[in-house]
Amino acid sequence: MHNKREPLLHISKRGAVKWYSAWLIRLAALVLAMLVCALVTTLTTGLNPLQIYATMWKGSFGSPRKIWVLSHDVAMLLCVSLAVTPAFRMKFWNIGAEGQTLAGCLAAASCMILLRNALPNWAIICCMVVASLLAGALWGLIPAFFKARWNTNETLFTLMMNYIATQLVAFFCVVWESPKGSGQIGIINQQSELGWLPVIGGQRYLLNILVVAFLCVAMYIYLNYSKHGYEISVVGESERTARYVGIKVDRIIIRTMVLSGAICGIAGLLLVGSTDHTLTTTLAGGNGFTAVMVSWLAKFNPIWMILTSFLITFLGRGASEISKAFSLNQSFADILTGIILFFIIGSEFFISYRVHLRGLAGKGAKQDV
Amino acid sequence: MFDIVSFIPRAVVQDIPLLFGSTGESLTEKSGNLNLGIPGVMYVGGISGVIGAFLYEQSLTASGAAMKAFPAVAIPLCASLLGSLIMGLIYCFLTVTLRANQNVTGLALTTFGVGIGNFFGGSLIKLSGSDVPSIALSATSAHFHRALPFAAKLGWFGQIFLSYGFLAYVAVIVSLIAAYVLRHTRVGLHLRSVGESPATADSAGISVSRYKYVATCLGCMIAGLGGLYYVMDYASGVWSNNAFGDRGWLAIALVIFTIWRPNVGVGASVLFGGLYILHMYIPSGMNLAVKELYKMLPYVVTIIVLVLTSMRNKRENHPPASLGLPYFREER
Q1: Phi-psi label, residue B227: left if phi above 0, alpha if psi -120 to 50, beta otherwise
Q2: pLDDT tens, A315-361?
Q3: Which of these, B117, B169, B201, B302, is most buried using a 10 Å CB contact count?
Q4: At what angle do helices B38-63 and B138-145 cross, to 10 degrees?
Q5: Assign residue A33 a region: left if phi > 0, alpha if psi is -120 to 50, beta otherwise?
């Protein structure tokens, strides 16, 4: 007997999906997203979509310099994504990477400014490394402590910590402003280059890329082959199980968030010490938020994250190239990135669930989508 | 001397967008959806209203007709509601129907919404091919900003309570209605049960998806009005990119501050609005840098409230138990 009120669609959970079919689904979503983006672009601006994608490609790979910038952007995004990943694996939703990075930036910059007349270059750099690690770690520790002790909602807590960091940076930007009255710091130690991290092989971006590449491998090993990584996974799967087998959950939460914050601190150090040599409230550039998506899209796997952070950076840079080339507003890039993200986010559903169509063509009309 | 009579109205005009945003987000969160896309939704609410008003004013200039009060208000209002409704539907489709991660979806929605706002804000004139120098909808804004006629005659009382455009009163009324519905009606009870324990609600015959959809979409539409109020009333119809700033995040902070009670939001948002502009009122001559520290206050206060409520561990002050979690019936 066929029940009349039986729903048209039936959803069931899939078992394990082969990795290639999962990536095939994601690829399909990406292609679909590109089509929609092309449609939106043509409708709002009347431009030829093919031309737009060609411009996008040129914007990222057009010249060696552009490739360097692209790789650097990928590396910095990857660095912050690596930082949030251990926390995400234990289902601690750290969306405060922006603030943790800024805390690292602030610490590094303050060492460069306060110690420039007191210590030799190598000592300043050592202080910068230590200070930015500690600052990032502290910014991660505060919400973690309250989460562990009183189960305070970490998503909202870390979100608020972002703005506290932003305002602190704004405060010090005025305190250390140069020239006076500008409200900006400008390039720190431009003449003496004190506290500037060394440039490797004449490429100013190479150091950051190498550091992040090392971090990426280290994080992969840490999460998959160490006792700590195992404990993180257990806490993430089930806190009760973790307690039952004698894992001290509070301690894991705090330890992991300190690590998470410290890596953000490294990102801050690299930004201030190696590439930008300045301090502004927007130095982290929204990477803290984008990292959440990068990490989640890669299913919290550090190696896949290289791909996803490349994808998002490529889209962002490409889209901003479009806006430049066709004299559109810069924010057009955000719209395209948003659309693409929606599609990729939506595609995850088809990886973990199976949709059965039924009731349309009578019995047995079961079709997998 | 601290001039309280001029301070309060300025705090209130700051607070109305926050109040709209936090009322909408409270409704949304009560259904178990943590919508971090609210900042984007508020941008879209604002720019949709601007587009509606802009097209209306352009059509008037073309035909030479005079502006009438009703369409001048109704067109931006409907456009704004429609824009934020679409944002809400995108969020719901992804998180409720497709069960995507809410944090990720919300952040993507914010990127998208802020992008839409700034893109159309910057290129509306070019796209529509008109020859005005900038988007200044002062005629429409005048209709939004019109205060009660006798407000000016009532001295300090009129200035503090009656000097605002009609959307400000709408904000207060909407949040009071939302509070009443949540606490005293059956629909509110069902909604809260969906947010606390969707499995229980489901087994009691409540349609979890429908409640989540309706609450989130309504929440987005209310929040979008905050954007509309900001552009049309506070900013006198002038759209400038990124001027709305981080008010969307502040609205989310306000939700926590009011411990998910929209009626508390009416007062608390004035406090937030006051904290937001307090740095303009500190005595001049003091160090400029200190002003930046004052801007930190709303966030610090929010964190303190967040920590205190979790320490006191009272049940009714907690976030909804299933906040941020997708619901799938077959997975218990």
Answers
A1: alpha
A2: 778 777 777 777 777 777 788 888 888 898 888 888 888 777 765 54
A3: B117
A4: 120
A5: alpha
State percent of chain A over pLDDT 70: 93
One-letter amino acid at B110 equals T
Tell me what ipTM this predicted complex has.
0.85
pLDDT at A38: 83
The tally of domains found in chain B comes to: 1
HSE toward the beta carbon, residue B319, CA cutoff 13 A: 26
Within a domain: residue B211? yes
| Cβ-nearest to A174 among B119, B289, B311 | B289
Span B263-278, average pLDDT: 85
Q: Between β-strands A367-368 and A9-13, what pairing exists: parallel, antiparallel or unpaired?
A: unpaired
What's the domain range around B22?
Answer: 4-317
Evaluate whether B255 touches B178 at the Cβ level (below 8 Å).
Answer: no
pLDDT at A364: 40
pTM beyond 0.90, yes or no: no
> What does the block give as tokens for A91?
């289902």
Domain boundaries, chain A: 1-34+331-369, 72-312
CA of A200 vs chain B CAs: smallest distance (Å): 35
Q: Identify the residue whose tokens are 């990490």.
A: A295
With beta carbons less than 8 A apart as the criterion, state whether B191 and B30 touch: yes
Strand order through the sheet with A353-357: A9-13, A353-357, A367-368
pLDDT in tens, A254-287: 999 999 999 999 999 999 888 888 888 888 878 8
Tokens read off for A346:
């939506």
Give the CATH number, domain containing residue B230: 1.10.3470
The residue whose two tokens read 């109040």 is: B19
Q: Which of B310, B314, B332 to mutate to test the interface with A (most CBs of A within 10 A)?
A: B310
Using a CB-CB cut-off of 8 Å, the residues of chain B touching A330 are: 118, 122
B45 located within any domain: yes
- Vertex B225 angle, CA B221 and B227, to 5°: 120
